[in-house]
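Suppose a colleague, Dr. K., hands you the sequence of a protein chain of 89 amino acids and asks what its three-dimensional shape might be. Before reaching for any lab equipment, you can write down a predicted structure in token form. Begin with the sequence itself:
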Amino acid sequence: ANRFSGGYRSMYFPGVIAAVQGDMPMLDGELPAANGVVTARALARMYGAIANGGEVDGTQFLSRRLVAGLTGEKIIQRDRNLFVPMAFH
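The predicted structure, expressed as tokens, is then:
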């Protein structure tokens, strides 16, 4: 039985409902720029690499150039997809 209301179900297609319900095949899918399913520890490790010049535990995972691009000066400009001013693109 579906516990979501008819109004809620009418707004979302079955794949989105499956993701909200924790359906693993949906979470395992690779949707570039749309999803990322990780543990809190893994996410913290990724941000740790960015904060530490791309390096974690003596291993260089990200180039210094990439880290500089990720952490550089934020310039507010119109986003090409959303058409509103944003500080990240």
